[in-house]
Specification:
The structure is a homodimer of 494-residue chains. Chain A is α+β, with helices and mostly antiparallel strands and 494 residues long. Chain A is 35% helix and 27% strand.
């Protein structure tokens, strides 16, 4: 498994190629032999596990419980919610048979035509339909509400153009599905979850966000409102990183989920759903990494600290081992994830390049002189700055440094984001500049016609109407010249 | 969601009905509207999560890393390993199309005939084929070995007769797949993992086991050896609870995974695979539970301690709340999972029956007199014994009691298992007794013919040749009258 450490394309030369190469060279994921489906490798999956654990704890703190619903959905379920079927029927994997048999010519196996399903089954693209079909059996009274369920699972959407993590036919995600007795409670839950996502992504992934509400055009199929977190990649394009939907009573009505309310009247249950996926991995990679490889936030790095001795021969190695194994253990006692790499089959220069590529936040190197002097070299991955310090007290220094890196990469990305949000109310200026990236905060008349024209002209879309922005006097729509109803973030996106 | 607490069938009346009802009434799982696929409900999933966490930690301690491979497998992959295709092609879900479209008559959606796949895709029944197809790209030198990967995922086998947890078309599991440079190392890993499973199942699930090796007939399709852990249910039937396979070079050869060994010669990689599934939930339920409901081992119980006050009116409730919230927090500080149930919309009697049904190991009840006297009633779920004790020092008592329950339910099950292992070398006696349950330790000539005859006559199968049994002088095969090659456990099974 020779790692090709060199020849990583530079971001400035080809940002897209840089990303594709980095995902593979850093051993995060690779294409499989099934079109559009990826293999998530151990190093990539270790980051995903940290994302899962952190989110799962946050979900549970809000009363959410995990469940598991079947992966296969009867075709007819999809048709029950009119908007939903339009959004999801187009791109789904269809199971039509349940058996193979040996080919009569001995060439292998073929589908057994006798094992045809009466009704075809769809591999879930999302699970609102199957879950609400079950909620009908669970929900009868206001006492049964709220129902707050989440599942971690795989889903499938047959994408034509795929990219590792960003858009794959199969991906991993969590999907939360809640049912409530009142509209107010459901709306509050949908907003609570987008805030939860934002808190996680900003504080753990160190990715600054714009949080807001989607336009009707960009809403989830079947939602009354879709809330979104939008991140900005280093090329200025938007990456939708998570969404939370207020579904009204659409699924309650489609699947006849009725309950007796406190006034003893029948009503349909109110719904939300919300999800983030392995797409977050793409956001993580693209936000922080550089021409040397990954830059990982310490809070999610599988290896937070790597320790490398520079020695010659077994005798010297033993001296280093004694000192540095103890240091590694001491750091582990503080809850840090530490790798001590004394392998003798790779040169130090190779190791350094490899750990840079993998984005290990802190590297400690000890050479012969350090061993004599009681010093050690500390390098931080985000800035590549090195300094030689006393080994005495190194544990506190490493802890402080990790916290500082976490903060620094967020600040760097936040500065970049803020510098690339452009208020703009002139369409010619917009058209001239939008292809270079950035979030354009523009007066918008709220119509789908205007959105369509902008998309046709520039490929840019309304990303969201941000929560935390001044929406007084939105001005005049830059396309139609009509009074704007809000200021929206418009940008190209992944 | 009214809970039907009464009318749980008694084990003695109908063990099978008792199980089916208990799974549903204890809110563990239910049938979905997709044939053979289940919904795992929050309480059931919480137990599964504890199983996952405990196993995952153990895997990682042995160097295993988690990964994710695609769910869909090209049909042709299945054919590459001759035995494997025989074992798995018969019962798999086949994806043939990737799009639906609106029916021309407006009746819903239909499969779009233009979206037919060139090669059909199979939903993984197990992932040896797709993983070894990828290992070819990862493994080139002995330095790349061992590869120790595991994934937690869903799999699908089209079962005709299904039962919640025990046999479902879709189930959740983990599948470990390792590649090694030598036969010895692979065999040692396969054995290491069955011992790991046994340690987990006996110590965390409190289920005693017989550990051994499968007969050739019962081996995994493509394996040279299959190791198994066999548990005994209360009806004396065996439940295969986990398996670990030594696959030799079968998959290395089928997928051309060659590496350069230390002597610079090309060789095929050696393989193992090993898995446990949501079937373990069935073993857990059936081993310990009784006519009142679930009995859960404290190590896996989502709620280890429930505290119930018996009060009248809000004033009295406040007095209890003050005392018992503090007790709950004090127990939580010791790492216990505690529920304080002061809900006023359910009577104490209902709560007691519900927590018995759910198998909560320890119940603490405080009434008015207890509040005055500084006492509390302690009930243990396994024996249903109650005693009233001083609240002073209750935390230590609860901790000791939980440890005692964990040990007691194991001992009880172990006593049952040991009492139902019957050495037997007379076929008439065997035939007369085997339908009543139990593991029969019988001299066996090692032939498939004998196995087939036993199965035809009695439905019993060779469960395993146990590791920890006296195999000297195995005697005379009870069916064929030929010299036996070993003593095997023969039993009916789930």
């Amino acid at each position: 498994m020779a790692i090709e450490l060199k020849n990583l394309t530079k971001r400035a030369d080809n940002y897209s190629a840089w990303y594709n190469e980095l995902v593979v060279k850093a051993d995060l994921a690779e294409q499989s032999d099934v079109r559009g489906c990826m293999v998530i490798k151990p190093y990539g999956y270790a980051i995903w596990e940290k994302i899962q654990q952190s989110l799962d704890r946050r979900f549970k703190e809000t009363g959410v419980q995990n469940v598991y619903f079947p992966m296969l959905i009867p075709k007819s379920f999809l048709s029950k919610e009119a908007d939903h079927v339009e959004g999801f029927a187009k791109e789904c994997a269809v199971v039509t048979h349940y058996r193979l048999k040996n080919a009569s010519d001995g060439s292998g196996v073929v589908v057994d035509p006798e094992a045809k399903l009466e009704e075809e089954l769809i591999i879930r693209p999302t699970s609102e339909t199957t879950i609400w079909n079950t909620y009908r059996k669970w929900i009868h009274s206001w006492r049964d509400l709220p129902v707050l369920c989440n599942q971690w699972c795989n889903v499938m959407r047959w994408e034509m153009r795929t990219r590792l993590f960003l858009r794959t036919s199969e991906f991993l995600w969590q999907e939360g599905h809640t049912a409530h007795a009142t509209r107010e409670e459901a709306e509050a839950r949908a907003k609570q979850m987008i805030r939860l996502y934002a808190d996680f992504v900003e504080n753990e992934m160190a990715i600054p966000l714009v949080v807001g509400v989607k336009s009707e055009t960009e809403r989830f199929a079947g939602a009354l409102d879709t809330y979104t977190i939008e991140a900005m990649m280093q090329d200025g394009k938007a990456l939708q990183s998570g969404t939370s939907h207020f579904l009204g009573q659409n699924f309650g009505k489609a699947f006849d989920v009725q309950f007796v309310d406190k006034e003893n009247k029948l009503d349909f249950a109110w719904a939300t759903s919300w999800g983030v996926s392995t797409r977050l991995m793409g956001a993580l990679i693209m936000t922080h990494s550089d021409d040397n490889g990954l830059v990982l936030p310490p809070n999610l790095a599988p290896i937070q600290v790597v320790i490398v001795p520079i020695y010659k021969g077994d005798d010297e190695r033993t001296a280093f081992d004694e000192k540095l194994q103890a240091l590694a253990d001491s750091l582990r006692c503080r809850g840090l994830s530490v790798k001590y790499d004394n392998a003798d089959n790779k040169r130090p220069g190779f190791k350094f390049a490899d750990y840079e590529l993998k984005g290990v936040p802190v590297r400690l190197v000890m050479g012969r002189r350090d061993l004599q002097n009681g010093t050690i070299e500390v390098m931080r991955r985000d800035t590549l700055e090195k300094e030689t310090v006393a080994i005495q007290g190194i544990e506190e220094r490493v802890e402080t440094l990790l916290a500082d890196i976490q903060k620094n990469i967020f600040t760097k990305a936040k500065t970049f984001l803020d510098a690339h949000i452009f208020p703009c109310d002139n369409y010619d200026e917009f058209k001239a500049r939008v292809k270079d990236g950035g979030f354009f905060l523009c007066p918008w008349d709220g119509t789908a016609e205007t959105e369509a024209k902008i998309k046709d002209d520039t490929q840019a879309t309304v990303r969201c109407i941000p929560f935390d922005s001044d929406q007084s006097n939105p001005g005049i729509d830059m396309v139609s010249g009509k009074p704007a109803v809000c200021r929206a973030i418009i940008a190209r996106s992944y």
